[in-house]
Design brief:
The structure is a single chain. The protein is mainly α. It is 73% helix and 2% strand. It has a domain of 217 residues.
Length: 502
């Protein structure tokens, strides 16, 4: 049996769940909750199984040929070290957010519609990760994007509708840039298979097409990733959405639609030159500092977290932009860590809003006394994002700083240190005004959130606490295989095509 047969199920399962929930969710009581939990859990188990299968594969790549057509003539789906790493990241976070939403979404009116859109978003992200075809990447990107536009506006309040409209406009502009880039590449190479495009570009150099499409992709995916100066939509979209969707947007969506797609195209298709890497490092450092400085003045908890998303994406892009094995390793490690602790922080903010019915830091205080699980998990996530040992964020930030010093970029290393210090200051403010101090009048009767919400927060906090174990030699392959895919660059073409073309 061909082990690559499991790859399409990363798209089929969430797409099937979305179809069934939309069809039966309104008529069968609790069907939407059962379906979303079952599909999310199955995807989680499947991605871990796929990761083990890939580790045992001799060439570290699995290619599924749709309809039996050999690439580049047919559409293919690819599972390599990088896509397996991203699948685990996406589906681990999505499972715990789905579990959290079982109770959290009780405050909203239509859970079947929410879980339908949620499944479509997961389907789009998984599709982006496994596709080997550039046009299908765009299609899956639009599936995930359109689902997220609707989910941001799910509460239908004026603020949410305005944020969703702004997000949709900016997202559509980003998609237009990406589509133009794909169209120009197709016009030049006469193929949409990503590996075949890399093969053609390496054998048929052109003076203008690569720089031109690189600018289009950098702008389009930079908007999706919310890198400065393309970040204007994010501070409105993330606070307005339900907390579980804020966690999805910040935890995994901007990384999949933005960072993953950007590095896949630049490293494995176009080829990452020194100029492109320099631009990525500059944008990463700029995002890192601008995001955290803007976060310091915020008093809305979710808006503060949204600005920190911009800052932490800067760390990821800076690490990958270094282009060295250690830098790429550190950047991807921080991508995984940020997915965990930022999702947890947004779930914490949702728990505070669920129980206290406010996100204003000036109105809260002493909530750790009545919400101990939320308080302690928030403290762990805050220490993680600030880079305090022994939590996971410390190790990835330290490796990014070491990688900068190793390559001689002392200025960027200093920016990373300053960003981390300012992040610590920002989250000390959060802990002081939300969880520490005297319990404010009117909050004495507040209770801890329901079990499903608590369980999700505890599990994510546990991953934050033990995340440093990923550096152990026995577990390091999880990141090493992903790093090797980017380090090998455009040799990705030979791995996918497997000698089918000369």
């Amino acid at each position: 049996m061909d082990t690559a047969i499991i790859i399409p199920f990363f798209v089929i399962i969430p797409l099937g769940a979305a179809f069934l929930i939309s069809l039966l969710g309104r008529y069968v009581r609790r069907f939407s909750e059962i379906a979303i939990c079952a599909s999310s859990l199955f995807l989680l188990v499947l991605c871990l199984y796929a990761r083990l299968l890939l580790h045992q594969a001799t060439d570290k790549i699995l290619v599924y040929k749709i309809g039996g057509w050999v690439p580049p003539f047919g559409i293919c789906m690819v599972l390599d070290g990088l896509s397996a790493f991203m699948l685990v990241t996406v589906n681990v976070v999505a499972f715990f957010i789905a579990l959290y939403s079982l109770s959290y979404m009780e405050k909203y009116t239509d859970k079947p519609k929410f879980f339908t859109l949620f499944s479509l978003m997961v389907c789009g992200m998984n599709g982006i990760i496994v596709t080997g075809d550039l046009f299908n990447l765009f299609v899956f990107l639009e599936i995930a994007s359109i689902s997220s536009y609707a989910l941001v506006a799910f509460g239908t309040e004026a603020e949410e509708l305005e944020a969703s409209f702004k997000y949709a406009i900016m997202g559509s502009i980003a998609s237009s840039f990406i589509f133009l880039g794909i169209a120009f590449l197709y016009g030049f190479t006469s193929t949409l298979n990503m590996a075949d495009i890399a093969r053609v570009l390496s054998s048929k150099p052109n003076a203008w097409i690569v720089p031109f499409v690189s600018v289009l992709f950098l702008t389009g995916f930079g908007l999706k990733a919310a890198l400065v100066p393309f970040h204007a939509w994010l501070p409105d979209a993330h606070p307005s959405a339900p907390a579980s969707i804020s966690a999805m947007l910040s935890g995994i969506l901007i990384k999949t639609l933005g960072v993953y797609a950007l590095v896949r195209i630049f490293f494995n298709i176009i080829g990452a030159t020194h100029n492109y890497l320099s631009i990525l490092m500059f944008l990463g450092a700029l995002s890192m500092l601008v995001g955290v400085i803007l976060a310091l003045s915020q008093w809305d908890l979710k808006r503060l977290l949204a600005y920190h998303s911009i800052s932490q994406i800067g760390y990821v892009v800076l690490g990958i932009g270094l282009g060295t094995p250690l830098g790429i390793f550190a950047g991807l490690y921080h991508l995984f860590n940020h997915s965990i602790f930022k999702s947890l922080l947004f779930l914490n903010s949702g728990a505070v809003d669920y129980a206290a019915e406010t996100r204003d830091l000036k109105e809260t205080g002493g909530l750790a006394k009545v919400m101990p699980v939320t308080g302690w998990t928030s403290l762990i996530a805050s220490m993680s994002i600030a880079g305090i040992p022994p939590f996971n964020g410390f190790f990835s930030k330290l490796l990014i700083i070491i990688a900068c010093i190793q390559k001689g970029y002392l200025g960027y290393a200093l920016c990373a240190v300053i960003g981390s210090i300012l992040t610590l200051a920002s989250f000390m403010k959060v802990q002081k005004f939300v969880f520490f101090g005297q319990l404010k009048p009117g909050f004495q009767n507040i209770k801890e959130v329901p079990l499903a919400m608590k369980l999700s927060m505890i599990c994510l906090a546990a991953i934050c606490a033990i995340g440093g174990l990923m550096l152990l030699p026995s577990l390091k392959f999880f990141l090493d295989d992903a790093v090797n895919v980017l380090v090998q660059g455009t040799r990705y073409a030979a791995s996918v095509l497997g000698g089918t073309l000369n």
